[in-house]
Amino acid sequence: MIDMKKAEIINTVVRNFNKGKFQMVKHSPEILVVSGIIGAVAGAVVACKATTKLGDILDDTREQLDVIRAFSADEERCEKHDYTQEDSKKDITIVYAKSGVKIAKLYAPAVIIGGLSIAGILASNNILRKRNVALAAAYATIDKGFKEYRNRVVDRFGKEVDHELRYNIKAKKFEETVVDEKGKEKKVTNTVKVSEGLNEGSDYARLFSKETTLAWNENHDYNMMFLKCQQKYANDRLVATGHLFLNDVYKELGLATTKAGQIVGWTYDDKNPTGDNFVDFGLFQENFEKVGSYTKSILLDFNVDGPILNTMTD
Question: What is the residue extent of each domain of the chain?
Fold first, then answer.
């Protein structure tokens, strides 16, 4: 019984130790940056303290040099002690060398602390860079698998079914008020295909509607013309710059930017394309369900290449 309790205690200690170790590894970039900042401040303080002692070393050096120069200026004493100008130069060099060593020792702690601080910050950046590369690779793998899955769905069931499944589009009945041939209003029940929203679609898809942008117009043809013009402009910009972030497109359409939009986008390389090499807004006219009714809008499902920071050409 006692051995079992000891084993349980040991297992608990080991488990807690491993948890702590994992947390240290997980937050190592933050720890290294904070340590680097603290080290930089500490190095500056140590350097300031060392500077207060620098005057004594310089004064001592100055006194020794004055003695050497005064002695070498006295020809009688130099001749008496067989002290030449070459000896004077050697002594001056020795004084400067000793003073340099003293100054180096004085500032060595500050330099060491500063060097370790810089190393910590650079190590933090290196860890984050490797993690970003790994995340980009993981995203590329998942995105490739998802696109292959969608292609299989399209091949078997068609684009319409794929679209309905992706955006959770269902046929629902709504009561609407219409005007008949005699000009009288009457209520009728219509079956309309609606989507509940974008939660189950692409993370980068957006609704172009009067609720999301000031660029919306009640005329559907005008909206489509505007979006197609913006799509062409985005493609021209992609070819001209070689890259385009999703947030850049959001801004042109008057849509709210996102954190992901700062990272994902498109790259252009006509010789070694890493993506589609063009921008497609994926324009779909959709009805989106509201409480007791629905609203008309245009769904924009952008064909982003994914994170492009590591794939942008120089």
Answer: 26-150, 200-307
